[in-house]
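Complex record, two chains
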Amino acid sequence: MTTLDFKLACPRPIDGDSINLSHGGGGSVMHKLIESRILPAFDTGALGVRHDSAVLEVGGARIAFTTDSFVIRPLFFPGGDIGSLAVNGTVNDLAMSGATPKWLSCGLILEEGFPIDDLDKILHSMRAAADAAGVSLVTGDTKVVDKGKGDGVFINTAGIGIVEHDLAIAPGSVRPGDRILLSGDLGRHTIAIMSAREGLTFEGGVESDCASLVVPALALIREGIDVHCMRDLTRGGLASALVEISEASKTRITIDEDSIPVREDVNGACEILGFDPLYLANEGRFAAFVPEHQAERALEILRREIRDAEPSIIGRVEEGSQRVTLRTTIGTGRIIDMLSGEQLPRIC
Amino acid sequence: MTTLDFKLACPRPIDGDSINLSHGGGGSVMHKLIESRILPAFDTGALGVRHDSAVLEVGGARIAFTTDSFVIRPLFFPGGDIGSLAVNGTVNDLAMSGATPKWLSCGLILEEGFPIDDLDKILHSMRAAADAAGVSLVTGDTKVVDKGKGDGVFINTAGIGIVEHDLAIAPGSVRPGDRILLSGDLGRHTIAIMSAREGLTFEGGVESDCASLVVPALALIREGIDVHCMRDLTRGGLASALVEISEASKTRITIDEDSIPVREDVNGACEILGFDPLYLANEGRFAAFVPEHQAERALEILRREIRDAEPSIIGRVEEGSQRVTLRTTIGTGRIIDMLSGEQLPRIC
């Protein structure tokens, strides 16, 4: 792993009066925008929880509700496209609440001149991803903007899932003693996008990890693991997710570099590009916080349910001041901060 | 009223291979896109209903779920802004199903360089509109696109409402004999946008009718009116809504020009601009289909609940071939078609 070069990653100066790309990057600048501007304007309890989904009571049932917009560039990339991403991204946010995803909405913002054949491909990807995740698209909207005022297609999906457990799966439920599981290797989605965008080729070809996390996430719950928190590792990567959870749970988190899988080709690309895999966006990876005595059992479940990646136990939660520390391969400790700006714009 | 000039309204040729602005216009070109491309790719029962919201079963309860993206230009206009529009638009779709709106999601797509002060104004408008409609914003997402790849801000909202009645409020429930109520005068939103966009000024100033329809729509249901269908009159206007309902219910619809209120200044603007008020988008008007024997009672309820407009009974449903006819002031009949292309791009 190389050190993240924030200047390289965020070349534009941050102007306090207007939006810049780092406001969408998943790091501390985005968090500051959300906390200082968006949350105060709404000020509702459910948003205050700062989790991937809001959990709401309907009659006697509990539902999870979430939304995500997708502005990825390019629209088609190795391992997926904006359509599969738009379904899996929202489905995964629901699964991270332990909800069974049921229904999706789809809002399309099309740019004038966008090829209808490309729209067809994207719609078929959405359908295939929805079928794979067991969700139905039930409501939609289509808008068109003038040429030069959009970028092909932007997609928003919102999703509803049913919460069928009594666990409080949230950052605030994480406790000292918890073990942290990672569902597979890091960084593939970002490197696949980089290669598609910049015309870089890597030996063997790196494909996005874009996939539904519904089956492994719900298997943990169904088989009695007392899951404290789950988080999919999108914008900001593993590092930003852990920092946020450490802050919300007021705990210290330690992870071991040796236990965090990164493919050789992804690692090589990171060294060339000056990226740190810990901060790279993934679209088919998650971290789960479980009690120590259930960690091995949880790992077995993930290994059984995840065929194309190697889940591992990567660290633990301790008492102490809020901090995330990486124990490196050579035995030193490195403090992990939240991604500050924007590592790679429009990654999802 | 003047005749709609489609050439003026849709100046660009329609190219069969790529998206043009008429694909977002709410008329027959958009309907063809949805029917030929989007619905087949998803092919779910709920979308097949072609109503403003999907109605879904959760435990013992029924919820309505809907989504809408907002790409209006300009962002701020007389009588509202994209924020109030984004809340009212989705809340109204829920209310048209007879659902009590409860929760909204908010997906922001911001363009690099967008002033944060403007974002604040929009967020505060959203909050004020949400408070007025009795809904909570519970989940959100923020994305940023490069300068020149968006247009200030696009907003997607999805909404969940609770259905607390046993009526089947849908186009297919409309029956011969039904009376059609209109909640107020037509065309203000479109003329307000036109005036803001083109710098036109009209005597007195025309403000958008942008508002929540929750209170009058739910009052009809609560007070025992057997509502067969409700529809808010956005893109495509009253004309397109009636044509769609006539087709879905396989009935003939007749409306009386004399009974359809259009303000003098809006009518004047329409004559100058070559618009037909029947096709103009509104953001605070709806049509309700009710049984004949309850029509006067329903009108009383709307008159009591709507303070700033004059509801009226505008027509009736008859047996016969699917068709919408306008009886004009001079006693002739005019067949009303669905809006064909795009009357005014980016009206919502």
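Note: The two ends of chain B are 23 Å apart (CA to CA).
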